[in-house]
Prior knowledge:
The chain has 12 helices and 20 strands. With 426 residues, the protein is of the alpha/beta class.
Amino acid sequence: xxxxxxxxxxxxxxxxxxxxxxxxxxxxxxxxxxxxxxxxxxxxxxxxxxxxxxxxxxxxxxxxxxxxxxxxxxxxxxxxxxxxxxxxxxxxxxxxxxxxxxxxxxxxxxxxxxxxxxxxxxxxxxxxxxxxxxxxxxxxxxxxxxxxxxxxxxxxxxxxxxxxxxxxxxxxxxxxxxxxxxxxxxxxxxxxxxxxxxxxxxxxxxxxxxxxxxxxxxxxxxxxxxxxxxxxxxxxxxxxxxxxxxxxxxxxxxxxxxxxxxxxxxxxxxxxxxxxxxxxxxxxxxxxxxxxxxxxxxxxxxxxxxxxxxxxxxxxxxxxxxxxxxxxxxxxxxxxxxxxxxxxxxxxxxxxxxxxxxxxxxxxxxxxxxxxxxxxxxxxxxxxxxxxxxxxxxxxxxxxxxxxxxxxxxxxxxxxxxxxxxxxxx
Length: 426
Ligand code: GDP
Ligand code: IMO
Ligand code: MG
């Protein structure tokens, strides 16, 4: 019985969704605490694939509560669409609730994201889901929160006042068409009665559960290198996907977190723009992309691929305080003669083992690699760590030595059952 946080340690898409689904089996509730439908979390159960964007990946366990927490920016249309997909698969959605403090991601946020990206000379490569504009409005203190939807007349006034300002921006700055207020209101009228019963004060629900000794799982979206403060700014998302983000985004005290599980993919990927020290823009990178099926779950974009960067994982450990590592997709590396791991950055002739804050420096960094021999055996059916090939064990042991964090679970395939349990995470 504990509160556990699952976070990404690289640039996202480490396999957090799969791991949350596995850990959710023993959880009483699963809580998303940041981000929005920019996330794409894939869960495969009995060969059936579910891609979740807004809903916590624990949603497939129908006996636990699923919470969209206060720190999430939630597009209610996407939420209902995702629920409807699950219902079509015969799954229940009765256990999903949304924080009254969460911000409503409005249609004008998506439009603004598109216009900003199109106009920017320095593009971020966002998912165009409206995340940046919604968080900007939140911090500028003119966002609309879910509790405001309960009084529809009040909500309509808020939309009118926000849209008046946004339309000035769209027309006068971006030289684009204004949005139609009537259409936005009509669309909300259609979903209002479905959404309102889901709106709850979730912070006391989560805190009461922890105080009662229940197991609460907090699911991070994105990852440390996309963190608004500690990632490769400005090529980041607009929230804090770290364990610190849980306290803000779910409303629990830091002392209430027991376990911080960092998901580490056995190599690196990145979607969107920004520096990527170990990127392989050659056949080797293409090999990893093909073998790892590295295409974005949200946008379908090919993911940029490279070797594992332990400088990045060390940075994630420093910021998150990892108690456990879950290593994913190590099966993808099977078949390689040599596997490289980045253990330092050579910046202008000086080797460092931390991530610089200045992106120009990260851009100039050359990876310092340690090389490992690969293995050829299929490892996807292995259930015990000791049955892994020696070369694979050496690779895992090096990750533990470098990060000083135990690898407690090894994921060797995309399905819920493809796991090697090493240390119990509870
Ligand atoms: P997330 O955003 O961190 O949840 O990760 P994504 O779901 O976007 O991307 C991870 C992809 O790898 C998904 O397609 C998963 O089904 C798949 N996956 C997860 N773990 C493993 C693993 O251990 N081995 C393999 N081969 N695939 C995995
Ligand atoms: P999961 O949870 C990978 C990236 C985008 C872009 C930057 C900013 O599946 O790991 P945004 O739309 O958030 O303003 O885009 O962040 N990005 C992700 N990359 N996985 C994700 O989520 C991501 N969510 C956002 O590609 O570079
Ligand atoms: Mg993803």
